[in-house]
Amino acid sequence: MDTGNIIAFLKKFSFGRLIGSGIVLRVLIAIVDGIFDLEINELPNFNLYIFGIALAYTILWMFNISYSEEE
Questions:
Q1: Global pTM?
Q2: What are the tens digits of pLDDT across the range 39-52?
Q3: In the predicted model, what is the mean pLDDT of residues 26-43?
Q4: Where are the alpha helices (DSSP H) in the chain?
Q5: Torsion-angle region of residue 31: left (phi > 0), alpha (psi -120 to 50) or beta?
Q6: Cβ contact 46:40 at 8 Å
Q7: Short-list 54, 63, 49, CA closest to 12
Q8: Are the CB atoms for 62 and 12 separated by under 8 Å?
Q9: Which of 43, 45, 49, 59 has its CA at a distance of 20 to 30 angstroms from the CA of residue 66?
């Protein structure tokens, strides 16, 4: 993989989507946790789990065919 491919990959990456999806996940988990009293926030690596899910969503979104065709 040359640097041109790396740069093209990073141009598609959206930090705004990563941050936004992380915030939405935190809010949804807080609502579900409050309703059902699951104490999800008490997990030892809760923030890392949220980051991993948000990062996976962002990377999968990058490879969406309809997004790739927009450019």
A1: 0.76
A2: 988 889 999 999 99
A3: 92
A4: 3-12, 15-36, 46-62, 65-70
A5: alpha
A6: yes
A7: 63
A8: yes
A9: 49
